[in-house]
Amino acid sequence: MISPIILSSMHQNLKEIERNELLETNKESKCYGLVLSEEDVKDIITSRNDTLKGYGRIELEIKVTKKLIENIYTSQFTNMDDYLETINDMQEIFYYLKNETDDKICDDEIIEILDELYEKFTGNMDNVRGEADEFAKKFKFGEV
Known about the structure:
Elements: H1 4-24, H2 26-29, H3 38-54, H4 63-73, H5 83-100, H6 107-120, H7 125-140
Helix pairs in contact: 1-3, 3-5, 4-5, 4-6, 5-6, 5-7, 6-7
């Protein structure tokens, strides 16, 4: 049996790794005028964990969030005022689509779909969310 102290230590190490990986995105994003603070990163991780819990999902890596961030900061439609909110919204939409498509679409393909929608709708998250919902409905009925 694994001790609760060991599990707590492992959890802390994982949180630190996630935090560092997300802060690492600042090296590239600052060229676009977008930077995440320590507080922003905590918010992103908390939002991700809440979303995962809400959808009954488990993720052992922060890879999806990093890829979403990379697509978001390279878009001409992202600005510092909505950077954090956009990241959190995209994470939520990503996991919504993973659930609605019964994990039949790989992570990279969903990320690509979201990136295309973000560009198509010039960063308007309401439109991205609406179109993602339409995609999920079509997928369920075999129209995609």
